[in-house]
Design brief:
Radius of gyration: 29 Å
Number of domains: 2
Structural class: alpha+beta
Helix content: 25-40%
Strand order of the largest sheet: 1-2-3-6
Number of helices: 4
Distance between the termini: 49 Å
Low-confidence stretches: 1-59
Mean pLDDT: 76
Strand content: 25-35%
Length: about 190
């Protein structure tokens, strides 16, 4: 049903039947009806587009995070250091990449940051590097992207989806070693 043209037909019928005696009034009604119809159509388009956009973004982006502290290390480490690592899974064409942001607080002598395979309370092998002091500078806000070619250890040669599956099963954590704590000063499960 086209509201604008149907209502315009009614107005036109009233006008030609001499029920509306002013051509100015008829023009005003037609203009209001056409503009109202256009506004309704535009509003519906915006609502539908917003819904579609939300659906598209919901399907393309997945976010994971890890809160980093010394008490999560195995064995626990007493430190004032802390941090957060945020990961965003993004579809790029037919492939997936994972962008990340690593923010550390009250830490010195950071030598690296990695994603490891392992459940809470377990230590495991590195599956992806996030930061290397020899190439990245200071890690206070290190960021980057991971692709399938960045996966190492038990995930070498696999797709990012393998890392995502590991994260979703509770089997991946971020570890940040320092010169004072070479096995890790802060750690956090990615969820």
């Amino acid at each position: 049903m086209n509201f604008s043209s149907d209502f315009s037909s009614i107005i036109e019928g009233l006008y030609t039947a001499n029920r509306l005696h002013s051509s100015t009034l008829g023009t005003k009604f037609n203009t209001v009806v056409i503009l109202s119809g256009a506004a309704v159509t535009l509003s519906m388009l915006v609502i539908v587009t917003a819904g579609l956009t939300t659906t598209i973004f919901a399907q393309q982006y997945t976010i994971f995070a890890a809160n980093l502290s010394g008490s999560n290390e195995v064995p626990p480490v007493t430190t004032a250091g802390s941090g957060i690592a945020i990961f965003q899974l993004v579809a790029v064409g037919h492939q997936q990449i994972m962008s990340y942001q690593l923010n550390l607080k009250n830490m010195t002598g950071v030598t690296g940051a990695h994603i490891h395979s392992g459940k809470q309370g377990e230590n495991g092998p590195v599956v992806a590097g996030l930061f290397n002091s020899s190439i990245s500078g200071l890690p206070i806000g290190a960021h980057g992207t991971l692709g399938s070619s960045d996966l190492t250890g038990p995930l070498a040669g696999q797709q990012i989806s393998a890392l995502v599956n590991m994260i979703r099963s509770g089997g991946a954590y971020v570890n940040v070693p320092t010169t004072q704590n070479r096995n890790g000063e802060v750690r956090g499960q990615i969820s």
